[in-house]
Specification:
The complex is a heterodimer.
Chain A (H helix, E strand, L loop, with lengths): L7 H20 L2 H9 L7 E5 L5 H12 L10 E5 L5 H10 L6 E2 L5 H7 L3 E2 L2 H10 L1 H4 L9 E2 L2 E2 L2 E7 L1 E5 H7 L7 H13 L15 H12 L16 H15 L12 H9 L5 E4 L3 H5 L6 E3 L12 E11 L5 H13 L2 H5 L6 E2 L2 H4 L2 H4 L2 H10 L3 E2 L10 H8 L1 H12 L4 H15 L2
Parallel strand pairs in A: 1-2, 1-3, 11-13
Antiparallel strand pairs in A: 3-11, 4-11, 5-6, 7-11, 7-12, 8-9, 8-10
Helix pairs in contact in A: 2-4, 5-19, 6-14, 10-11, 10-20, 11-21, 19-20, 20-21
Chain B lengths: L1 H12 L17 H33 L15 H7 L2 H31 L7 H13 L2 H12 L5 H8 L11 H29 L3 H9 L4 H12 L1 H16 L3 H6 L11 H10 L4 H28 L4
The chains are: A alpha+beta, B mainly alpha.
């Protein structure tokens, strides 16, 4: 029996279809996922989409806050929907494009700017105005709202901050007999001293899914009075201050203060370094001891560094809650957002989130003040923290391109591999960024 | 030697020394049967067109516009393709994709075929080995990539320690661009060889053992039998497995993304990773989809080329 011959035309068609499908599934078929995500919600309800900002109990609490919302007057009720971080941008984008998206959501740090740029965001000016009358505005920590003000209004409202904080392991510093760094020269000196006792002098990483080296690189630029943008929001990377900062970072690499394998470190790898006392110092988010389940009290917040020209700052991401134009009733969206912001203290009372509060009143809660590290971060870091938008204040859609884009990742990895000079690294960064931003 | 080779060729074709038997006449279907077949095919064809057609057209629109995932934007013709083709990053990704695909296809095929041949012999525990060898293919890639990361991530990981024990310096596989490329390719071979082994085992099972007996009687050595009988007789399924693995490799996103995210410094960025990052991290939908289209064209070209080999592989 002879096999059934395959015709050439038939085969080509099949091969083409097989080739096209997976590619387009990755790049062109996002509508379907959005439809699925957005379907099912009844009309006349404010759809609130929330991200998993903590463990499952966070989502449970968020849902409970939403479900127990009792609107006043003509305002609509709200429904809660959890959205996973995986491919969240595609989920939101496809839902918005198909008019099945939320009326209110949390999301990526710069998501509001992106969707505002595409005409999908409802400005929050009315909410801010109400906050000014009920005392909530004055209760905000410094700098957490300013970044959301654009020429069209407030694109979103802050609800927690993700601060980049310098941590140190006290026992390691004691063993090395060196003081905790306060500026760049002492950081280099401490790193060398730690290296002598076989400990990594500065822990960072840029492996799969790890953006801490990206954050560190930018924080060092702004710690030297530099940054990625002009105050007007244009790309401005190749500057003397940035050059000086990159040269210092390269010096840390060449001196062996940073692990030569750091470019491939995931957050799990970094956690292992911290847990095993193989590092003594590094940049991480708030609540590092809790993340590592370390109750020894040996991991402490170090003070922010002073740059060579006296600049003292760190990087923060202000996580926010945003409203969309696709809502059954804008006034109801605003009423729900106001209500939600008033319930935030629950998250810190129950220790459900990994970020810091944006309201002073929450930082004064006993559940918060019992953590000396958190108190120190609010006292020393919050007043000086800047966002990716530095040297400007307000972020734009371009800030989102910087945040997760290829240019910044390559920039940080080029520093950590230490095989290129500072000027070339900055020029490549500028070229890559300019090709991506509008 | 000529006699042996000629005998092997005849045996391969199933031709007796006396010559060809009667050729089969091509079967013909009655027109009614053809219509029935056509009618049964139509629902599937319509579904296939709908499933493939819409994303294809939508992607074509995106590739020729300067919009986002939400807005189509303005028509820009072939500007996105020009942007991509003049980008150094695209050609770096294309180069790595080529290396990754070549190593992935032929590395996994060579190992898979060797193991399939080995498992044809009567080694003890053959069934157990078959199951164990399938594990890399069966285990979810998220799990295996995490395991590999643990094996190589830091200087204190097991593999670098092993290298040190063997007298070498501890390599940093994820930190060095060249070693990261090697690691990703080896990982791809590791997760792919079971598939090739199954394909090869299936092909080898169809080879009649009497051919080898006849060849042995004619004085053919093991290597002659492999080259003159085994390889030609499994050529058709081999080419099919190459086509499939080529498609798998070119479109392989998780292997690279989970292990290196395309780094360090873009050293392991393949075209599909590049397309993904361009669309979803740099938010440049048009150029990203243009990359996907160029990949498609390349894949069709490669598939057609290999398909021609399949036709040539027919036993005459």
């Amino acid at each position: 029996m002879t096999p059934t011959p395959i015709t050439r035309r038939g085969f080509i068609g099949t091969a083409a279809a097989a080739a096209v499908l997976p590619i387009l599934a990755a790049c062109g078929s996002s509508k379907s996922s959005g439809s699925a995500s957005g379907g099912g919600a009844p009309s006349g309800v404010i759809k609130f989409w929330d991200m998993p900002w903590g463990v499952q109990s966070y989502s449970d609490a968020s849902k409970k806050i939403t479900d127990t919302y009792v609107p006043t007057g003509q305002h609509l009720k709200a429904s809660w929907q959890g959205i996973q971080w995986n491919n969240f941008y595609q989920t939101f984008a496809s839902a918005i494009a198909s008019k099945t998206g939320p009326a209110v959501s949390t999301g990526g740090g710069f998501q509001a700017y992106q969707f505002a740029d595409q005409g999908a965001i409802a400005m929050a000016d009315n909410v801010v105005a109400t906050m000014k009358t009920n005392g909530m505005y004055d209760d905000l920590l410094p700098g957490v709202l300013d970044g959301f003000k654009t020429k069209d209004g407030y694109v979103a409202l802050p609800w927690q901050t993700d601060m980049r904080v310098l941590w140190y392991r006290k026992s390691v510093f004691d063993k090395a007999g060196v003081a905790v760094p306060t500026d760049w020269p002492s950081m280099l000196a401490a790193g060398k001293a730690l290296k002598k006792i076989g400990v990594i002098g500065f822990c960072t990483g840029s492996g799969a899914g790890n953006f801490l080296a990206n954050h560190w690189a930018v924080s060092m630029l702004i710690n030297n009075g530099g940054g990625v943008w002009t105050p007007e929001g244009q790309v401005d990377v190749v500057t003397d201050r940035n050059l000086e900062a990159v040269e210092f970072m390269l010096e840390l690499v060449s001196a062996g203060v940073i692990d030569p394998g750091a470019v491939g470190f995931t957050t799990d790898n970094m956690d292992s370094q911290w847990k095993g006392s193989k590092t003594g110092y590094g940049l991480y988010g708030a609540y590092l001891p809790q993340r590592l389940s370390d109750t020894s009290g040996d991991i402490l917040v170090a003070g922010p560094l002073t740059g060579p020209h006296g600049d003292k700052t760190t990087l923060q991401f202000v996580n926010n809650i945003m409203m969309y134009k696709n809502t059954p009733d804008q006034a109801s969206s605003e009423a729900f957002v106001l209500y939600y912001l008033q319930q935030l203290k629950t998250y810190w009372q129950q220790a459900l989130v990994g970020g810091l509060p944006v309201f002073k009143s929450i930082t004064q809660l006993p559940e918060f003040t019992k953590d000396a590290n958190a108190v120190k971060i609010v006292a020393e870091y919050s007043p000086i923290a800047k966002t990716f938008a530095a040297r400007g204040t307000a972020s734009t859609a371009n800030t989102a391109v910087l945040d997760g884009g290829q240019a910044l990742n390559k920039f940080a990895q080029s520093i950590l591999t230490g095989k290129t000079d500072a000027k070339t690294i900055l020029n490549d960064f500028a070229t890559g960024l300019k090709s991506s931003v509008k | 030697m000529t006699t042996v080779t000629g005998g092997l060729a005849r045996a391969r074709r199933g031709v007796s020394p006396g010559g060809h038997g009667a050729r089969r006449r091509p079967s013909t279907l009655k027109s009614q049967t053809r219509r029935t077949y056509l009618g049964m095919l139509i629902p599937s064809v319509v579904l296939l067109v709908l499933i493939n057609g819409y994303p294809l057209v939508y992607a074509a629109v995106q590739a020729t516009h300067n919009g986002s995932l939400i807005q189509a934007g303005d028509f820009v013709g072939l500007d996105n393709f020009t942007t991509v083709l003049t980008s150094a990053a695209f050609w770096r990704a294309a180069r790595f994709t080529l290396i990754f695909t070549l190593v992935g296809v032929f590395g996994s095929w060579a190992i898979g075929l060797a193991l399939a041949l080995l498992l044809r012999t009567n080694i003890p525990g053959r069934g157990l080995f078959k199951v164990l060898l399938l594990l890399p293919w069966v285990v979810p890639i998220v799990v295996s990539s995490t395991a590999w990361n643990w094996l190589v991530a830091t200087a204190d990981s097991p593999v670098p320690r092993l290298f040190e024990a063997l007298g070498f310096a501890r390599p940093l596989f994820l930190a060095d661009p060249v070693l990261a490329g090697v690691l990703v390719c080896v990982f791809k071979v590791w997760i792919s060889f079971p598939f090739m082994m199954m394909m090869a085992a299936g092909a080898l099972a169809s080879v009649d053992d009497t051919l080898y007996e006849a060849a042995s009687i004619d004085g053919a050595s093991r290597s002659q039998q492999f080259v003159q009988i085994t390889l030609p007789l499994i050529a058709r399924p081999t080419y099919i497995s190459w086509i499939l693995m080529t498609v798998f490799c070119v479109n392989d996103f998780p292997t690279i993304y989970l292990l290196t995210t395309g780094g360090p410094v873009d050293a392991t960025t393949s075209l599909v990773v590049f397309a993904y990052r361009t669309v979803f991290q740099d938010f440049q939908t048009g150029p990203g989809v243009a990359v996907a289209f160029l990949m498609t064209v390349t894949l069709v070209f490669v598939s057609v080329t290999l398909y021609r080999q399949i036709r040539r592989a027919h036993v005459e």
